[in-house]
């Protein structure tokens, strides 16, 4: 039922013409390649943003299978929404790094589509050999400064960072907790124009999945921006990266299926030499087998 509903909805709301409009608009560097109306419908009317989030946070409490079914259909229609980065990557990182109670208010806003989150890790980063986040590979450091922290470093090629409401920033702690990972939540509205933070949109081939570079240069943040630290962050973010890889594969499967379907349909209906192409026949070599 989930797959059928998604297929029927996206066939209408994310057809080739709709995707083309969004992609053409994203040729302007100020656009992020997202269909905001489609996102609102998916989050509000259909409840897709909460499908795999805990019921305690307003989600449906379903699992990876149901989420993969949605991702497959989104890939088939090239849906121009930040679903993969916000719901398949950032949300699991948040849920896995925090205990259920403190995570619930944040996850509830994601489940309702009220906020979009981006996980500030490079596009190419993978979990360590044990499946967890390798803190030594983090390119942002966090040092205690008074009643808050100072963030320094750069993160290249972050998915959907420019359009996010929240940046989830994994950073390597210094001082007494040196080497331990921590997860910071930064609200982008508060970062605009703030010294110590920079965001640069990148020119990309796939305008439906924008990338941006982030720079932290002595950025001061409040103590409560640090949501969690230690082994829980390493395990939670690492698991989210594996989870997101699986969902990306489901999306690619949907895209490949659409390419196959279109090719088969074209081959069956194409016209050449004033008539339809004859159905394909096995070669003589194959027939002899």
UniProtKB/TrEMBL annotation:
It comes from the Bacteria. Coiled coil: none annotated. Residues 1-114 form the Acyl-CoA dehydrogenase/oxidase N-terminal domain. Keywords: FAD, Flavoprotein, Oxidoreductase. One of its GO terms (molecular function) is flavin adenine dinucleotide binding. This is Acyl-CoA dehydrogenase. It comes from Cupriavidus basilensis OR16. The lineage of its organism: Bacteria, Pseudomonadati, Pseudomonadota, Betaproteobacteria, Burkholderiales.
């Amino acid at each position: 039922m989930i797959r059928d509903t998604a297929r029927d909805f996206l066939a209408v709301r994310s057809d080739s013409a709709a995707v083309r409009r969004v992609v053409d608009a994203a040729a302007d560097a100020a656009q992020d390649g997202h269909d905001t109306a489609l996102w609102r419908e998916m989050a509000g009317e259909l409840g897709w943003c909460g499908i795999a989030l805990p019921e305690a946070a307003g989600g449906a409490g379903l699992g990876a299978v149901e989420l993969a079914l949605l991702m497959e259909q989104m890939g088939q229609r090239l849906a121009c929404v930040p679903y993969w980065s916000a719901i398949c990557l950032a949300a699991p990182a948040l849920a896995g790094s925090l205990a259920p109670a403190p995570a619930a208010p944040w996850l509830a806003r994601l489940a309702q589509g009220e906020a979009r989150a981006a996980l500030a890790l490079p596009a190419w980063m993978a979990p360590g050999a044990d499946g967890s986040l390798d803190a030594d590979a983090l390119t942002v450091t966090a040092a205690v400064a008074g009643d808050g922290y100072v963030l320094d470093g750069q993160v290249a090629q972050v998915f959907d960072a420019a359009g996010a409401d929240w940046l989830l920033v994994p950073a390597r702690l210094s001082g007494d907790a040196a080497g331990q990972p921590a997860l910071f939540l930064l609200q982008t509205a508060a970062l605009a124009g703030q010294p110590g933070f920079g965001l640069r949109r990148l020119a990309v081939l796939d305008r439906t999945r924008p990338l941006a570079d982030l720079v932290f240069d002595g950025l001061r943040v409040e103590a409560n921006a640090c949501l969690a630290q230690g082994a829980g962050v390493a395990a939670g973010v690492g698991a989210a990266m594996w989870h997101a890889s699986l969902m990306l594969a489901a999306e690619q499967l949907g895209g490949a299926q659409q390419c196959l379907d279109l090719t088969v349909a074209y081959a069956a209906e194409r016209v050449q030499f004033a008539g339809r192409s004859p159905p394909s026949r096995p070669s003589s070599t194959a027939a002899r087998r």
